[in-house]
């Protein structure tokens, strides 16, 4: 059984309520139930924080033991060299995900400090971006 850690960054605790035209109407808790049922072969842990340091601590804590990390760093994607350094420091592969298509939004969302140090990026498929990222850990 592969162990996957999902890490959600700032404001993603408000999914379902936050700008539903962009991020949808479903809470992450409800979506997570569906995803856990869809992937019985994965042990999926989930962590959310609005704090950059807490996200870095979780990367350090899980980044040498988990089989994969799915990271939506929210707005820290576009600002955080420290999270990029944490991803470089760990051995577990990290998939960067975004719910919205950041490339069709404001120019400041087009740059990611994280993409160059992640195994891959999945962007713009709504909450299903997470499912696609999880799927990537099941293909050889
Ligand atoms: C986001 C995109 C970011 O630009 C934004 O700051 C978020 C959510 C996404 O999942 O689409 O908080 O990461």
CATH architectural designation: 3-Layer(aba) Sandwich
Order of helices and strands: EHHEHEHEEH
How many structural units, i.e. domains?
Answer: 1
- What is the overall number of helices? 5
How far is it from the N-terminal to the C-terminal residue, by CA? 14 Å
Helix content: 25-40%
Report the CATH C-level class: Alpha Beta
CATH topology: Rossmann fold
Keywords:
140 residues, alpha/beta, Rossmann fold, 5-stranded parallel sheet, 5 strands, globular, binds 1,3,4-trihydroxy-5-OXO-cyclohexanecarboxylic acid
In short:
The protein is α/β, with parallel strands linked by helices. It contains five helices and five strands. A five-stranded parallel β-sheet has the order 2-1-3-4-5, with helices on both faces.
How would you describe this structure to a colleague?
With 140 residues, this protein is an alpha/beta fold. It has one domain: Rossmann fold. The chain has 5 helices and 5 strands. It has a 5-stranded parallel beta sheet, sandwiched between helices. The mean pLDDT is 97. It binds 1,3,4-trihydroxy-5-OXO-cyclohexanecarboxylic acid (DQA). The site of 1,3,4-trihydroxy-5-OXO-cyclohexanecarboxylic acid has 10 residues, from loops.
């Amino acid at each position: 059984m592969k162990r996957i850690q999902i890490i959600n960054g700032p404001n993603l605790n408000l999914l379902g309520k936050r700008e539903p035209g962009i991020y949808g109407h479903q809470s992450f808790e409800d979506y997570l139930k569906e995803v856990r049922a869809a992937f019985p072969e994965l042990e999926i842990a989930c962590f959310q924080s609005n704090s950059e340091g807490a996200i870095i601590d979780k990367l350090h804590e899980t980044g040498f033991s988990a089989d994969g990390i799915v990271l939506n760093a929210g707005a820290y994607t576009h600002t955080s060299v420290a999270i990029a350094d944490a991803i470089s420091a760990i051995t577990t592969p990290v998939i960067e995900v975004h719910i919205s298509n950041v490339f069709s939004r404001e120019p400041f969302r087009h740059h990611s400090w994280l993409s160059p140090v992640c195994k891959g990026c999945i962007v713009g498929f709504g909450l299903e971006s997470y499912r696609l990222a999880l799927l990537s850990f099941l293909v050889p």
